[in-house]
Amino acid sequence: ETIQKLQEEEKARALAENTQISDGIKSTLKAYVGGQEIQEGDTVYTGEIVKYELTLENIGEEDIENISVEANLPEGTKCVKYIKNIEFTEDENGTHAAEDYYKEIELVDRKATNSIDLLKSKKKILLTYNVKIEDGAEINNIPITINIHSEKYSNNLTLNCKVEKAEIRLY
C-alpha cells in the first residue's frame, strides 16, 4: 500500500511538473505513445512516435495576443506528420485502401514553431507535435522543451523520456 501511494505521488508530481501557470496562461504538456499517456522518465523505444500535446489555456480575464510557441527537438528525432492515405490499390483480390503513413516535416535548427494571434479569455488551444525516435539513434533520452512567449508571458516546459533500442529476437 505504501509503495502504491509513493508511485501515485510520483505520478502526480510528474504531471505537476508539466503544468505551469504564469500571467493568466496555464500551459500543460503531455506525451503519448500508441494512445497511452507516458510520464516524465518513462521508457520509449527507437522507431516509436511520441505524440506531444501542449494545451494553452487563458485563465485570465483579458485576451492574450501574439503568443509564440517553439518546440525544440533533440538530436536523433524527427518531427513527423500523420498522413491519412485516401488512395486505393487494386489486385486480384479486389480493391484495398493504401496504408496511412508518417511524413517527415522539415525544421530549421530542430525547432517547430507556432504563432497564435489571439487566445481569448477562458479559452484553450491544443498544439500537437509528433516526434519519431530514429531507428539508429544513439541517444539515451529525448528531452523536448517548449518555449512559450507573449508580451506579458514567458514559460518553458520540458518532458524527458528514456530511450532504449527496440530489439527483435527470433526463436
Which descriptors would you attach to this protein?
five-stranded mixed β-sheet; mainly beta; seven-stranded antiparallel β-sheet; 14 strands; 56% strand
Indicate the mean pLDDT: 78
Number of helices: 1
Structural class: mainly beta
Question: Helical percent range?
Answer: under 10%
Main sheet specs = 7 strands, antiparallel
The tally of beta strands, per DSSP, is 14
- State the shape: globular
Encode the helix/strand succession as letters.
HEEEEEEEEEEEEEE
Structure description:
With 171 residues, this protein is mainly beta. It is built from 1 helix and 14 strands. It has one helix spanning 2-17; strands at 19-22, 25-33, 36-38, 43-45, 49-58, 64-72, 77-83, 88-91, 94-97, 101-104, 111-119, 124-133, 141-149, 154-164. The strands form 3 sheets. Strands 1, 2, 3, 5, 7, 10 and 12 form a 7-stranded antiparallel beta sheet that branches. A hairpin with a 2-residue loop joins strand 8 and strand 9.
